[in-house]
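Final report, Chapter 2: Outcomes

The project's central promise was a pipeline that accepts a single protein chain and returns its three-dimensional structure in a standardized token representation, suitable for archiving and comparison. That pipeline is now operational. To close this chapter, we reproduce one record exactly as it appears in the project archive, with the input sequence first and the structure output second.
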Amino acid sequence: MGRFEARTSEEAGEARVILSGDCDLSVQDELVTVLLAAVDGHERVVVDLAAVGFLDSSGVHSLVTAHHTARERGGRVIVAGATGAVATVLDITGVATLLGEGAAVAAEEPPAAERGTGG
């Protein structure tokens, strides 16, 4: 796939960062800059990985860095659209669980003891 590109848009108060190409060490600084800029202005940031063909440990590190920064500010980073080898990397590293849509729902849901049983 090759050449890395990042575009950011805003929809309904959340940032959507659309990545394409290869996310590797050669683009780590640019990737971190884009992700942190999105986190800085939004409570929820969705990172669309549908057009990413390669993701190495530096790309994973960038996503986790953005996640920690967002959490410190009361926000969320969520990954979406990963397929193939990129989805496998996210699964193996646990980032799919940490930053997946299901993780966002679980983080917003109160613990079972607080929800009550309604009975």
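Archive annotation: The first helix runs from residue 28 to 41.
This record, like all others produced under the grant, will remain available to the consortium after the project formally closes.
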